[in-house]
Structures are given as structure tokens and as C-alpha cells.
């Protein structure tokens, strides 16, 4: 597992190559096995492949422009409850790792709490673009694709100055 974790990088440039259905299914299986508070499994997922929708999603906040080039964009949302952010964050982490395991790349694109360049709430914009019911919350986008370039993996070394060991 550590080998996959060390290979995980934020990828913002993708090859113009479709993702095999089996790889998307494996990513969704990983997402569905995510832990959640009280095992409530409140998450919801949208797979966006449509070019026009991806172009609109790329405008939901100032750092999302690369979203338009991904073959698939996974939108992660949830039924609202007091722990929806934590539940969806864990899901996104597992998606990130399984995407890496499948030879794909992704990069977290924050939605919750962000605004686009016109000052509109990113979450509301995403909900309009993909027709999400009003009560559902959206945490992030994870654009998926084959990386144009494979960056070097992380060293996996422990940074001792960031660890406090208590007896």
C-alpha cells in the first residue's frame, strides 16, 4: 500500500485518452468501501464526461481551469449532516489512491466554500451544472485521466520535526 501512497501526486494535465470502464468501476468500488460516521454512507457521486459540462465546471473557481481537459470528472457530494465534510473527505482520499493504483491521475478541486470569478458560490454553480437536488452538498471535484507526465514519487521518509512522540 505504501508504494501506491508514495506514487500519489496531484495531476493537472491529462492525456487525450479515454478511461476504461473497468478502471472507473474500481475507483467507485473503492469509494463505496469508505468508512463513514455511524456507517451512514451519505455520499453521492456524479461522473461527468460531457465536454460542455466539464467546461462549465472548469469555471466554478479560479484554480479549476484544468478540469475541462480531464476525460472524466468525479463530483463528490453528500446528504447533509454534521459530518458530511469528513465523510466525503475520506471518500476523496480513497478515490485519489485507487486512481493512482489504476495508473490514473487526479487533483482535488475544492468546491465547498469557494466562489467563482463573478463572486457566485461554487457549490451552487456545480449543483446547477449537474442538476443536483437542493439538499445535497458538494465538497469537491476530482478530475480523472491518464497523466501527461508522471512526476517523481514521494520519498515516504518520516519528517521527524513534524512528529511529537509522547510517552
Structural class based on helices, strands and sheet pairing: alpha+beta
CATH class equals: Alpha Beta
Q: Unreliable stretches, pLDDT < 50, 5 or more residues?
A: none
- CATH structural architecture: 3-Layer(aba) Sandwich
Helical percentage: 25-40%
N-to-C order of helices and strands: HHEHEHEHE
Percent of residues in beta strands? 5-15%
Net shape = globular
**Tell me about the biggest sheet?**
4 strands, antiparallel
Number of strands: 4
Task: Specify the number of helices.
Answer: 5
Q: What is the arithmetic mean of pLDDT?
A: 97
Radius of gyration: 16 Å
CATH superfamily: NADH Oxidase
Distance between the termini: 28 Å
What's the arrangement of strands in the largest beta sheet?
1-2-4-3
Number of domains: 1
CATH topology assignment: NADH Oxidase
Topology, element by element:
Elements lengths: L1 H6 L13 H12 L10 E6 L2 H7 L14 E7 L5 H18 L7 E2 L11 H9 L6 E8 L23
Antiparallel strand pairs: 1-2, 2-4, 3-4
Helix pairs in contact: 2-4
Description of the molecule:
- The chain is an alpha+beta fold.
- It has a single domain (2-7, 20-145), classed as NADH Oxidase.
- It has 5 helices and 4 strands.
- It has helices at residues 2-7, 21-32, 51-57, 84-101, 122-130; strands at 43-48, 72-78, 109-110, 137-144.
- Strands 1-2-4-3 form a 4-stranded antiparallel β-sheet, sandwiched between helices.
- Helix 2 (21-32) packs antiparallel against helix 4.
- The longest helix is centred in the middle third of the chain and has 18 residues, at 84-101.
- The protein is globular and about 50 Å long.
- The model has no long low-confidence stretch (mean pLDDT 97).
Amino acid at each position: 500500500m505504501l508504494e501506491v501512497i508514495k506514487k500519489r501526486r496531484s495531476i493537472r494535465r491529462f492525456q487525450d485518452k479515454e478511461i476504461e470502464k473497468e478502471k472507473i468501476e474500481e475507483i467507485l468500488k473503492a469509494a463505496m468501501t469508505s468508512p463513514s460516521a455511524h456507517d451512514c454512507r451519505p455520499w453521492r457521486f456524479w461522473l461527468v464526461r460531457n465536454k460542455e459540462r466539464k467546461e462549465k465546471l472548469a469555471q466554478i473557481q479560479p484554480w479549476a481551469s484544468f478540469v475541462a481537459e480531464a476525460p472524466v470528472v468525479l463530483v463528490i457530494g453528500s446528504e447533509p449532516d454534521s459530518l458530511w465534510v469528513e465523510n466525503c473527505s475520506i471518500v476523496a482520499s480513497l478515490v485519489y489512491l485507487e486512481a493512482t493504483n489504476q495508473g490514473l491521475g487526479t487533483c482535488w478541486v475544492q468546491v465547498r466554500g469557494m466562489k467563482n470569478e463573478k463572486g457566485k458560490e461554487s457549490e451552487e454553480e456545480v449543483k446547477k451544472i449537474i442538476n443536483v437536488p437542493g439538499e445535497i452538498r458538494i465538497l469537491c471535484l476530482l478530475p480523472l485521466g491518464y497523466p501527461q507526465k508522471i512526476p517523481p514519487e514521494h520519498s515516504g521518509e518520516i519528517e521527524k520535526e513534524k512528529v511529537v512522540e509522547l510517552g
